[in-house]
Amino acid sequence: YKMAGDSRFPDVDSDGSVKSEEMEIVVNVGGVRQVFYGDNLNQYPETRLAELVNCLSGGYDSIFSLCDDYDPGKREFYFDRDPDAFKCIIDVYYFGEIHMKKGICPICFKNEMEFWKVDLQFLDDCCKAHLSEKKEELEEIARRVQLILDDLGVDASESRWKKCQKCIWKFLEKPESSYPARVIAVLSFLFILISSVVMCVGTIPDLQVVDAEGNRMEHPTLDSIETACIGWFTMEYVLRLISSPNKLHFALSFMNIVDVLAILPFYVSLTLTHLGAKLMELSNVQQAVQALRIMRIARIFKLARHSSGLQTLTYALKRSFKELGLLLMYLAVGIFVFSALGYTMEQSHPETLFKSIPQSFWWAIITMTTVGYGDIYPKTTLGKLNAAISFLCGVIAIALPIHPIINNFVRYYNKQRVLETAAKHELELMELNSAEGKAAGSRSELEDISRESKEGPFYSSRIKVSHSDTFIHLLSEEKHHRTRLQSCK
């Protein structure tokens, strides 16, 4: 393209019509004037700029269906669009691909491409990845907003059981929905802590009692507290299962599987204690019960349900499988090499502790990951040198992949905070738009509501109910276009 100051007259055919290939059009986008020629624009005839080449013969209706304004004296088309995005989009006519400049919102750039009727396939792969990330963020915000609106909305067609089911689900799954739900979440958190503490304290010999057969068992008081905690966990799980909208998805969820693993050992051990003695020897029953009681440690993972930090850590580890794999590979190679070297160098010592290479693996593991326990240690000079090198290599191997893992954690944690803030901001805008709509539609009704708000929380409830009827830009597929100017028409 070139600036419009370099004027040029188009050639004409024998019948006086302008050749579309050599026609010059002037485009003014947000105050930036640029000149294009038909031979360049006609490479992509379905785009808006290519349609401008042939729109003059169709009259003002055809012109104003494509642009915001038109000056017939200068033959200049006006567009109230983003000039920075436009400069990137017109690269498709010259280079066949588009790169999005830094600082431009990907979603806005996508909307600009749709306005100029340029297909997204011309966007370079690096920019598509950035656009996909932003689209996922908007979808996540829309999902969160929709969940809040579903909670606030009231569907009169629902049955009483459906309404009760939804209330129980909100009560147990969404602590932010009400003050009683927050209290239940705190109680659940305390029961998890109490159950974990009781499990640990019950193993102290001084607090255990001896039964009639001389076997040590947990104190009856601790056993009663354990039973109360299991009762709470069972009631909580059953209520959540009954009230869940999708019971199959609920049952297969990871956190719900953890809940089952935390509850099941108690009932299985109780069944074995009362019925297992008739089917097998008493010693086998006791061993099975002890093995099942160890599974109670799974309940500590229930804390992840109430801790966003643990959820963020889990996600960061899931996104860091590649880095964790590299860490394990580095350690595995180092363990194999240094254990073999340590075994070879220590064979000359008569009192060597390195009996075989597989036995040396334990020494290599504790040396590369810690500072060693001293149960196995080298006694020769070369063996000590090998141990020092293995220790330094272990520090380096562990430190190298840590930075990407920390970055994944920080990135996801900040992203979740941004999404929460964006969802709240979207709801505030919806509430503001709803209030303005009511004020414009019925001022008397707004005055009545404001008077009643002084007596109680009626106004806030009215606003919350109206959320479900408010237009949400992120949740709607409706396209809104700018109103074109027709001052020259």
Question: What are the defining features of this structure?
Answer:
single chain, 489 residues, mainly alpha, Potassium Channel Kv1.1, Chain A, Four Helix Bundle (Hemerythrin (Met), subunit A), Helix Hairpins, 3 domains, 4-stranded mixed β-sheet, two-stranded antiparallel ribbon, 20 helices, 6 strands, 62% helix, 5% strand, flat, disordered N terminus, transport, cell membrane
Reported by name, the CATH topology of the largest domain is Four Helix Bundle (Hemerythrin (Met), subunit A)
Sequence stretches where pLDDT stays below 50 over 5 or more residues: 1-18, 452-489
Please state the CA-atom Rg, rounded to the nearest Å: 35 Å
Number of helices: 20
Subcellular location: Cell membrane
Subunit structure: Heterotetramer with KCNB1 or KCNB2.
GO biological process, one term: protein homooligomerization
Transmembrane segments: 183-204, 248-270, 324-341, 385-406
Structure description:
It is a single chain. With 489 residues, this protein is mainly alpha-helical. The chain folds into three domains: 24-147, Potassium Channel Kv1.1, Chain A, CATH 3.30.710; 174-305, Up-down Bundle (Four Helix Bundle (Hemerythrin (Met), subunit A)); 311-434, Helix Hairpins (Orthogonal Bundle), CATH 1.10.287.70. The chain is built from 20 helices and six strands. The strands form two sheets. It has a four-stranded mixed beta sheet with strand order 2-1-4-3. A two-stranded antiparallel sheet has the order 5-6. The longest helix has 40 residues, at 402-441. The two termini are 28 Å apart.
